[in-house]
Amino acid sequence: VPMEEEEDDDDDDPENRIAKKMLLEEIKANLSSD
Amino acid sequence: GREGGYKEENERLFGEFLALCTPLTSDHPEVLPFLCSRHHKTSSGFLASAELRNVLSRCLRRVRRRHAKVYVYINELCTTLKAHSLRRKLPLQP
After folding, report:
1. Whose CB among B7, B52, B75, B90 lies 3.0–4.6 Å from A19's, allowing a Cys bridge?
2. Residue B42 to residues A18, B69, B79, B94: CA-CA distances in angstroms?
């Protein structure tokens, strides 16, 4: 069985992904309300 | 206490935070201008507060340590600034 690669959180931190999504949604909402 | 507050120090820390985050957010260059627009809308009292100085110092320290969470710290700062934004008071019509 091949060893699973350890996730490098430098690229793919779940908390970071959620925060990024929230920010981008807020930016989009702000743009559309202008 | 500091009579002038922490305005200048906070501006310096905010500039440092932006400089640190710029290369880390090159995949979404619209994020930092958004953070700046939040900063512009923040009340002057909060911009000169020790509370903001603490938040900025903490965010700077963390982003230096963990580049992978840069958006978490930007989001935290945005939320803090939003909570202290100037509210436009519309005059009530008689």
Report:
1. B75
2. 24, 24, 11, 30
Q: In this predicted model, what pLDDT tens digit does every residue of B34-87 receive, in sequence order?
A: 999 999 999 999 999 999 999 999 999 999 999 999 999 999 999 999 999 987
Backbone φ and ψ of B85, nearest 5°: -80, 155
pLDDT, tens digit (0-9, with 9 covering 90-100), for A1-34: 655 544 444 457 999 999 999 999 999 998 887 6
DSSP B61-74: HHHHH-GGGHHHHH
* Helix, strand, coil percentages, rounded to 5, for chain B: 70, 0, 30
Nearest Cα of chain B lies from the Cα of A14 at a distance, in angstroms, of: 9
- If 0-12 CB within 10 Å is exposed, 13-18 middle and 19+ buried, where does residue B90 land? exposed
Does the beta-carbon distance from B34 to A23 stay under 8 Å? yes
DSSP state of B85: B
